[in-house]
Amino acid sequence: MTQDELKQAVARAAISFVQDGTIVGVGTGSTANFFIDELAKIKHRIDGAVASSEASAARLKQHGIPVYDLNSISELSIYVDGADEVNKYRQMIKGGGAALTREKIVAAVAEKFICIADESKWVDILGKFPLPVEVIPMARSHVGRQLVKLGGYPVYREGTVTDNGNIIIDVHGLQIAEANKLESAINEIVGVVTNGLFAHRPADIVLLGTKDGVKTH
Ligand SMILES: O=C[C@H](O)[C@H](O)[C@H](O)COP(=O)(O)O
């Protein structure tokens, strides 16, 4: 099976968690795009969606799925999104597509976070994938210096502006043993909006696409 076929398989599997008549939280990225396309097939059964990026909102609308502002709803039963890395504690690194902040916000509202990923994303220790950090532009150098003190090698992601008008710094060289602590420490740096560690809010369910089928963790 190709990587895209594995992504499609987990996207399909996630549809079984969608309850009729509800608003669905939808993530960002290539795996989330497969989920949006699967969601379109059952769009008559749902009320609509909340998107974690402008790109996902546009794809949902192209399919004729109503997109709600998060502020206009009070509850969200599920949030379905991909990940750049996920471990056995269902902690994740996210933000390869620069959507980490909105993803974290929608995930915070959702009762259940369902992570959909192909097996290449499964890791023992988080950190091989450079950790994305969303930063207020004027704080770029300051945040970079603080990230070095935390043991990382910060690299400015040239040409990327987030949906919130900020920049991304990718932190290389981290071996993340205590994801909760590092998530908090980075978020305490003045000028950081948030970072792509989802440790305080791990996924509730991971659907992992493997050659032997979709495995649930
Ligand atoms: O900002 C992007 C998101 O965190 C994505 O969920 C993550 O990068 C995984 O994307 P993909 O499904 O394309 O590998």
Automatic annotation (TrEMBL):
<dbReference type="Pfam" id="PF06026">
    <property type="entry name" value="Rib_5-P_isom_A"/>
</dbReference>
<comment type="pathway">
    <text>Carbohydrate degradation; pentose phosphate pathway; D-ribose 5-phosphate from D-ribulose 5-phosphate (non-oxidative stage): step 1/1.</text>
</comment>
<dbReference type="InterPro" id="IPR020672">
    <property type="entry name" value="Ribose5P_isomerase_typA_subgr"/>
</dbReference>
<feature type="binding site">
    <location>
        <begin position="81"/>
        <end position="84"/>
    </location>
    <ligand>
        <name>substrate</name>
    </ligand>
</feature>
<comment type="subunit">
    <text>Homodimer.</text>
</comment>
<keyword id="KW-0413">Isomerase</keyword>
<feature type="binding site">
    <location>
        <begin position="28"/>
        <end position="31"/>
    </location>
    <ligand>
        <name>substrate</name>
    </ligand>
</feature>
<protein>
    <recommendedName>
        <fullName>Ribose-5-phosphate isomerase A</fullName>
        <ecNumber>5.3.1.6</ecNumber>
    </recommendedName>
</protein>
<dbReference type="GO" id="GO:0004751">
    <property type="term" value="F:ribose-5-phosphate isomerase activity"/>
</dbReference>
<dbReference type="InterPro" id="IPR037171">
    <property type="entry name" value="NagB/RpiA_transferase-like"/>
</dbReference>
<comment type="similarity">
    <text>Belongs to the ribose 5-phosphate isomerase family.</text>
</comment>
<feature type="active site" description="Proton acceptor">
    <location>
        <position position="103"/>
    </location>
</feature>
<dbReference type="InterPro" id="IPR004788">
    <property type="entry name" value="Ribose5P_isomerase_type_A"/>
</dbReference>
<feature type="binding site">
    <location>
        <begin position="94"/>
        <end position="97"/>
    </location>
    <ligand>
        <name>substrate</name>
    </ligand>
</feature>
<comment type="function">
    <text>Catalyzes the reversible conversion of ribose-5-phosphate to ribulose 5-phosphate.</text>
</comment>
<feature type="binding site">
    <location>
        <position position="121"/>
    </location>
    <ligand>
        <name>substrate</name>
    </ligand>
</feature>
